[in-house]
């Protein structure tokens, strides 16, 4: 397995370089270094001299990918792409265009993101699987029928509506929790309650149906018939056998997102005033801060790859027949 | 035995199934009760319960401030913080209108002396052409002290305690308050000089460096000197500006300094109200330049050090910014004179009392308008601007077109404040364009008629009514109300677009516009030369789907003249690029004044300020010799009737040439709770928090009234869940019993 993991990590390198190159190309197709300088210097009294000075200070006064004026290997290394990219592979994210340390920001902002994403993920998983199993348990009864209808209804509503509706009902009309904001220490609990509930409910429809489909597929397999023939109760069949055998597709969908929980949610963080990484990324895109955008895309890619590796490893734990070689 | 084991297992499993449905509900309810039990009577209070009843102002910021270093901060979201911390020598009077400059740290208004090229002092009334440079002499009050800060802390031997720190020393420090010792010192003239030098610092990017380098003697050369010096030093090392003299500034004594300006620049005095000219102590600059500081975001850009009424106690631009009263601040008092209506409004009740009134200001970040608005209604923010979404809920327009507060808001004790901003939003014509600008004299004359016709056709009164809830006034020229050169009524009417009718301004009829269009060579919108319909191109920045109706409306305005308007939407970068290169034909733009002088608006149409070729601020590339000449005359003149006459003539030229559709001056509507007092809107001054007053007891009382938790939904929700799950439970039991009977039978 170690060889497999090492091989996957080595495969990740060209992927990360490719992602970095694409991010770089996309960003600079839309924004030139001059545009970035103007964005940061403001719209008033901006002189060419000031733009030149800003570019020099931030290392954007070089050619993008190929430096004709340089010699030898420097034709490639004395460029914006090389200078801005290489350090990232050593996890040195550098400074944002406003001078602040990106690694410091990521460290401080990933916890609020995680504070929402992790409970939503865990509670959500528990809820969706439980409800899906209950629906299977009562399959072909009114519980299953109305459960599916409820799921379809839940998945037909926009996530933004859940947020605005939840804030309106629970915070504005009933005054039960703060509408938005974030606290310190244990005080964060009352700020997280509403976004977590909304996070779980807004995805309940689609996810419960997805798990129900997985379990339905399993329920007709031979080992289930055998278990029933042995006289096992339906609940034992479902919770012990079906759930275990459906673990591979469950793990495929869940483990891969675990590392990405650090990156937070864009809309949720924005509406609930959570100072996480999602809002950091949005801010960076709006202010054309390439350093932050590139760092966040790099981090996202890295975590996604890590998620895929973890998924593969989790297969071996869920199913002893799987071997990573 | 086996049978028994299987049965007991089944019981356990059944129990699991029963519990599974309820587990999340009970966990959620438990969590809810645990969390809420720790709260006070109000459950939705976003602030710590311990802060209730305290003299705190709750405010909002939407965009995170990029720079808090006064040499760089320029956006309103940055200035609203830096203005409370830093003290430039001058400020605007809080109550007097039109806006009046008064000393802040200065002991009196600066004196200005003029000199010729031989350094001979000239009388004040000398011709502008003789004046080679002006000298502003500024004296500051003794006895002003900086906020407590570790940069000033001294040890037993009177050495600066934290000025020889190593990276290891800084390692355990996470915020500035982690430094055990603080100190202070008196404000001196050198601190102002130090900051002026920082405008040219190679590591800083002052947005006004380019502008000031044209005025402050030697500033550009000074920037070159500093750049050369910085290149010889390792990165981020301290560049002690005290070692490098700047010819444009001079220290007279501890409390007096002079600034030398090239030629005559009367508007310079307004810049002395801005944080660009606030004092910076060299100790702070040195303190933050030590190794390891930048890695922890310890910098002047993050932790301001000032003499103002407040100091930044918490800087978390992702969530919250907290200003606390500067214990060393003293010597400023609430004004004892204002406008006649101020007495009636109770704005002089605190006359002569020491400032500031509020102990702490908490700025919370609200990126979205809905939570912001709802929290204002719940009493968790003390003031709120009114967005389009909430306008109808907050404001009603009377039959006379007057905006008043709705009954619902009035019942909550909320009051409305309105002010026309010193800003203008306009639609510009690129005068270099052959169709709307013209190349030959005949073309230019025809294009002028075309622009005049469009000026009549595009009905900005209608625009404000439909899209802005009347939050603005249709502009008669580039100068907004409250600025010298603006006239009310018939005197201020633009006779090209409007006519005076029954004592009111009325937009000219579309027939008059059509006649002008025909004179321009486009009868009924068809080119007389080519016989083809007239097509014009309107460049705008990328619009959201919501703005589509505005663009449709704009097309409709042009269609009144049978002109086809093609909207070219692009992102802001490309839009700016088009404007810089003169590739746009018609475009929209706006300007917020830096200072309340007409020069700050009229220069937007001054020929040498053209975007194309000169990279100035004149986006229309308008260039009229007479206007340019008058501008040069006007800009250096003192305020007075003679200056107003010249401004009037300039406005007449502009109206005739119509390089802009004058658009509108936005009107800002804000709501204030009953406990928020001493509020008088002033869009030029941001250092006004020191004048405001809060009644925390009234606020607490209202919050308690408005935010009583409604508990029945929790009970109803639980009951609903039970009702839903009970039949399932019964069905489960029945199923299990059937299975059991079957097992027994077999």
CATH architecture of one domain in chain A: Orthogonal Bundle
Rounded mean pLDDT of chain B is 90
**Approximate helicity band of chain B:** 25-40%
Level-2 CATH architecture of one domain in chain B: Alpha-Beta Complex
Computed over alpha carbons, the radius of gyration of chain B is: 32 Å
What is the molecular shape of chain B?
globular
- Report the count of strand segments of chain A: 0
Strand percentage of chain B: 15-25%
**What is the CATH superfamily label of one domain in chain A?**
MetI-like
CATH topology of one domain in chain A: MetI-like fold
CATH topology of one domain in chain B: Dipeptide-binding Protein, domain 1
Task: Quickly name the level 1 CATH class of one domain in chain B.
Answer: Alpha Beta
Tell me about the largest β-sheet of chain A: none
How would you briefly describe this protein structure?
Chain B: Residues 186-610 form the Solute-binding protein family domain. The complex is a heterodimer of chains A (325) and B (746). Chain A is an all-alpha fold and 325 residues long.
What does this structure look like?
The complex is a heterodimer of chains A (325) and B (746). With 325 residues, chain A is mainly α. Chain A has a domain at 102-318: MetI-like fold. Helix content of chain A is 71%, strand content 0%. Chain A is built from 15 helices and no strands. Chain A has helices at residues 2-30, 33-41, 48-58, 74-77, 80-85, 102-137, 142-156, 159-173, 188-219, 222-229, 234-245, 247-254, 266-272, 277-286, 290-318. In chain A, helix 10 (222-229) packs antiparallel against helix 11. The termini of chain A are close together. Chain B is of the alpha+beta class and 746 residues long. Among the domains of chain B are: 2-39 and 710-745; 84-291, Dipeptide-binding Protein, domain 1 (Alpha-Beta Complex), CATH 3.90.76; 423-595 and 660-668, Dipeptide-binding Protein, domain 3, CATH 3.10.105.10. Chain B has 22 helices and 25 strands. In chain B, strands 12, 15, 16, 17, 20, 21, 22 and 23 form an eight-stranded mixed beta sheet that branches. Chain B has a five-stranded antiparallel beta sheet with strand order 5-4-6-8-7, with helices on one face. Chain B has a four-stranded mixed beta sheet with strand order 1-11-10-9, with helices on one face. In chain B, a hairpin with an 8-residue loop joins strand 2 (90-92) and strand 3. Chain B is globular, with a radius of gyration of 32 Å. At the A-B interface, helix 2, helix 3, helix 6, helix 8 and helix 9 of A face helix 1, helix 5, helix 10, helix 17 and helix 22 of B. Chain B: One of its GO terms (molecular function) is peptide transmembrane transporter activity. Chain B: The chain crosses the membrane at residues 710-732. Chain B: Belongs to the bacterial solute-binding protein 5 family.
């Amino acid at each position: 397995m170690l060889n497999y993991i090492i091989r996957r990590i080595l495969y990740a390198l060209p992927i990360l370089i490719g992602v970095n190159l694409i991010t770089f190309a996309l960003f600079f197709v839309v924004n030139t270094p001059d545009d970035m300088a103007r964005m940061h210097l403001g719209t008033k009294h901006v002189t060419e001299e000031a733009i030149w000075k800003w570019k020099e200070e931030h290392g954007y006064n070089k050619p993008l990918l190929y430096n004709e004026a340089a010699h030898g290997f420097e034709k490639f290394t004395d460029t914006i792409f090389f200078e801005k990219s290489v350090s990232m592979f050593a996890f040195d994210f550098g400074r944002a265009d406003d001078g602040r340390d990106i690694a410091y920001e990521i460290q401080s902002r990933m916890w609020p993101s995680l504070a929402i994403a992790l409970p939503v993920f865990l509670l959500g998983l528990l809820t969706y699987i439980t409800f899906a199993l209950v629906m299977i348990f009562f399959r072909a009864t009114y519980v299953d029928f109305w459960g599916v209808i409820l799921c379809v209804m839940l998945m037909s509503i926009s996530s933004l509506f859940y947020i605005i509706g939840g804030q309106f009902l629970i915070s504005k009309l009933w005054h039960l929790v703060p509408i938005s904001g974030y606290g310190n220490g244990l005080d964060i609990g009352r700020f997280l309650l509403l976004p977590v509930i909304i996070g779980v409910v807004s995805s309940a429809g689609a996810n419960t149906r997805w798990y129900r489909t997985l379990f339905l597929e399993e329920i007709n397999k031979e080992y289930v018939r055998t278990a029933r023939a042995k006289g096992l109760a339906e609940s034992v069949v479902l919770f012990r056998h079906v759930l275990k055998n459906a673990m591979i597709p469950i793990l495929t969908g869940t483990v891969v997102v675990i590392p990405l929980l650090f990156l937070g949610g864009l809309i949720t963080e924005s509406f609930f005033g959570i100072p996480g990484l999602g809002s950091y990324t949005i801010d960076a895109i709006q202010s054309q801060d390439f350093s932050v955008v590139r760092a966040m895309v790099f981090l996202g890619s890295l975590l996604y790859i890590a998620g895929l590796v973890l998924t593969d490893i989790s297969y071996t734990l869920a199913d002893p027949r799987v071997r990573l070689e | 035995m086996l049978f028994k084991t299987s049965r007991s297992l089944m019981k356990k499993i059944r129990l699991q199934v029963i519990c599974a449905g309820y587990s999340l509900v009970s966990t959620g309810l438990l969590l809810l009760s645990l969390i809420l039990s720790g709260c006070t009577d109000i459950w939705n209070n976003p602030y710590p319960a311990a802060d209730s009843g305290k003299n705190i102002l709750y405010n909002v910021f939407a965009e995170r401030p990029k720079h808090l270093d006064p040499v760089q901060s320029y956006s309103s979201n940055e200035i609203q913080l830096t203005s409370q911390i830093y003290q430039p020598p001058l400020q605007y009077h809080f109550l007097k209108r039109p806006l009046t400059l008064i000393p802040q740290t200065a002991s009196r208004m600066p004196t200005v002396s003029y000199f010729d090229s031989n350094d001979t002092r000239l009388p004040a009334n000398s011709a502008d052409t003789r004046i080679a440079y002006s000298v502003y002499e500024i004296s500051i009050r003794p006895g002003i002290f900086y906020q407590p800060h570790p940069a000033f802390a001294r040890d037993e031997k009177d050495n600066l305690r934290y000025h020889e720190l190593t990276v290891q020393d800084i390692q355990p420090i996470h915020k500035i308050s982690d430094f055990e010792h603080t100190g202070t010192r008196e404000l001196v003239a050198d601190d102002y000089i130090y900051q002026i030098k920082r405008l040219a610092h190679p590591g800083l990017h002052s947005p006004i460096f380019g502008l000031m380098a044209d005025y402050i003697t030697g500033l550009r050369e000074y920037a070159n000197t500093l750049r050369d010096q910085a290149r010889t030093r390792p990165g981020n090392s301290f560049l002690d500006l005290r070692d490098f003299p700047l010819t444009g500034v001079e220290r007279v004594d501890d409390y007096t300094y002079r600034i030398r300006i090239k030629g005559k620049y009367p508007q310079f005095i307004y810049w002395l109200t801005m944080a660009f000219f606030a004092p910076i102590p060299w100790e702070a600059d040195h303190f933050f330049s030590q190794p390891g500081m930048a890695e922890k975001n310890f910098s002047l850009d993050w932790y301001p050090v000032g003499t103002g009424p407040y100091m930044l106690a918490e800087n978390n631009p992702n969530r919250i910014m907290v200003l606390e009263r500067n214990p060393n601040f003293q010597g400023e008092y609430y004004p004892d004179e204002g406008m006649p209506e101020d007495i009636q409004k109770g704005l002089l009740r605190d006359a002569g009392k020491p400032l500031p009134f509020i102990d702490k200001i908490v700025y919370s970040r609200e990126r979205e308008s809905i939570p912001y608005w709802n929290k204002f209604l719940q009493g968790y923010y003390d003031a709120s601007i009114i967005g389009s979404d909430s306008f109808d809920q907050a404001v009603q327009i009377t039959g006379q077109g007057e905006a008043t507060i709705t009954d619902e808001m009035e019942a909550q004790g909320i009051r409305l404040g309105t002010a026309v901003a010193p800003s203008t939003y306009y639609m510009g014509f690129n005068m270099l364009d052959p169709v709307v600008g013209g190349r030959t004299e005949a073309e230019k004359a025809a294009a002028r008629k075309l622009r005049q016709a469009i000026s009549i056709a595009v009905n900005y009164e209608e625009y404000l009514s439909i899209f802005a809830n009347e939050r603005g006034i249709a502009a008669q020229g580039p100068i907004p109300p409250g600025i010298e050169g603006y006239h009310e009524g018939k005197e201020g009417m633009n006779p090209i677009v409007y006519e005076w009718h029954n004592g009111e301004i009325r937009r000219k009829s579309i027939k008059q516009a059509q006649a002008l269009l025909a004179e321009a060579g486009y009868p009924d919108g068809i080119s007389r030369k080519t016989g083809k319909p007239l097509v014009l191109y309107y460049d705008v920045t990328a619009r959201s789907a919501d703005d589509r109706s505005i663009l449709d409306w704009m097309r409709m305005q042009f269609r009144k003249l049978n002109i086809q308007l093609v909207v070219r939407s692009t992102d802001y970068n490309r839009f700016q690029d088009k404007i810089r290169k003169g590739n746009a034909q018609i475009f929209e733009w706006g300007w917020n004044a830096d200072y309340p002088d007409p020069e700050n608006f009229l220069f937007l149409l001054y020929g040498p300020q053209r975007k194309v070729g000169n990279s100035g601020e004149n986006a229309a590339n308008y260039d009229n010799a007479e206007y340019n000449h008058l501008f040069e005359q006007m800009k250096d003149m003192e305020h007075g009737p003679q200056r107003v006459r010249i401004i009037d003539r300039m406005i007449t030229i502009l109206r005739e040439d119509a390089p802009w559709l004058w658009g509108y001056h936005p009107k800002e509507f804000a709501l204030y709770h009953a406990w928020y007092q001493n509020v008088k809107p002033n869009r030029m001054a941001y250092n006004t928090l020191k004048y405001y007053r809060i009644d925390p007891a009234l606020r607490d009382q209202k919050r308690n009234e408005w935010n009583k938790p409604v508990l029945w939904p929790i009970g109803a929700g639980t009951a609903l869940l039970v009702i839903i799950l009970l039949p399932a439970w019964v069905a489960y039991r029945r199923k299990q019993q059937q299975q059991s009977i079957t097992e027994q039978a077999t």
